[in-house]
Specification:
Blueprint: H1 2-12, H2 25-36, E1 49-53, E2 57-61, E3 81-85, H3 98-101, H4 105-111, H5 113-119, E4 125-129, H6 130-136, E5 140-141, E6 157-159, E7 162-164, H7 170-184, H8 190-202, H9 207-220, H10 225-228
Parallel strand pairs: 5-7
Antiparallel strand pairs: 1-2, 3-4, 6-7
Helix pairs in contact: 4-5, 7-8
Length: about 230
């Protein structure tokens, strides 16, 4: 029955228009850090704590989660807080807009309201260790058979353009992808959609995800219906 409900929402989801779009990428990161995650300063993939620093950044405490990025690339970003797009901006329709095709992402962020609505969508932003964000780049999620953990205790694996997140966060990440697909028409192969539906069912929202969703709704004007449906 739950799978039928999810498929129903997948086919007929109708999402309300966003209320407020941040004016810049810097502002979007500042808002999500200080008004959404202010009391939940934990990175998404690895569960590391961080302390805010500067306008929108922060410093990662790698000892809090057993993270070890030594020997991997992007050494200078091990202790850097990034705000990562769960759905990479380059995989959204913003990449196909004239401002990006004939210019760049930064030009879209300055000049296009439609691009801003996609790139600055707060539902799609999560705190991440800079190193893992750069390692992932714009890869999609999936299952990697037999891949070893290479970042200490962090359950974060990558291989051949695929990133495999920990089971404990797959449902949350899946609901972001499903939301972005219907909110912003992000292209999603059917096999990937079914994988995300399975992830969402096997890992329902926890209290923090509900809280995050409610805060973003208050700030942005819309919630993630793929989270809301679990309440009913």
């Amino acid at each position: 029955m739950k799978l039928i409900c999810l498929l129903f929402f997948t086919a007929f989801a109708c999402l309300t228009h966003a209320g407020g779009i941040p004016s810049s990428w810097s502002k979007a990161k500042q808002i999500v850090r200080d008004k959404v995650y202010f009391d939940h300063k934990i990175t998404k993939y690895c569960g590391c704590s961080y302390e805010p620093k500067g306008v929108s950044g922060g410093v990662i405490d790698t000892t809090s989660c057993g993270y070890n990025g030594s020997g991997m690339k992007y050494q200078n970003a091990i202790n850097v807080l990034d705000w990562e797009h769960v759905v990479p901006a380059s995989l959204t329709p913003a990449k196909e807009m004239n401002c990006w095709v004939n210019g760049s992402r930064s030009i879209c962020e300055r000049t296009s309201k439609e691009a801003k609505a996609i790139i600055f969508d707060l539902h799609n932003l999560v705190p991440s260790i800079g190193q893992t964000n750069r390692i992932r780049s714009n890869s999609r999620y999936g299952i990697i058979e037999g891949e070893e953990q290479r970042l200490g205790l962090c359950d974060f694996e990558w291989s051949k353009g695929i990133t495999e997140p920990s089971e404990r966060i797959r449902g949350e990440l899946a609901r972001v992808w499903l939301y972005m697909s219907y909110r912003h028409n992000v292209v999603m192969p059917e096999g990937e959609r079914l994988m995300f539906l399975r992830w969402s069912l096997s890992d329902p929202p926890d209290e923090w995800e509900y809280t995050r969703n409610a805060r973003i709704k208050e700030l942005q004007g819309n919630s993630n219906i793929f989270i809301d449906m679990f309440k009913y």
